[in-house]
Amino acid sequence: MSYEEILYSVRDHIATISMNRPAARNGYTLTIAAELGDAFTVADHDPDVRAIILTGEGADFCVGMDLSSGAPGDEVSEDWLEPAGQCSRRIFECTKPVIAAIRGAAVGAGSTIILPSDYRIAATDSRFGYVFTRRGFFPEGASAWHLPRIVGMGRAMDWMLTGRVFPAAEALAGGLVHQVVEPDQVLPAAETYAKDLIEHTAPVSVAVTRQMLLRLSAFDSPYPAHAMDSKLIAGLGGSADAVEGITSFLQRRSPDFPGRVPADIPAVVPWKGIDQADTASTSR
Question: The organism sits in which domain of life (predicted)?
Answer without folding.
Answer: Bacteria
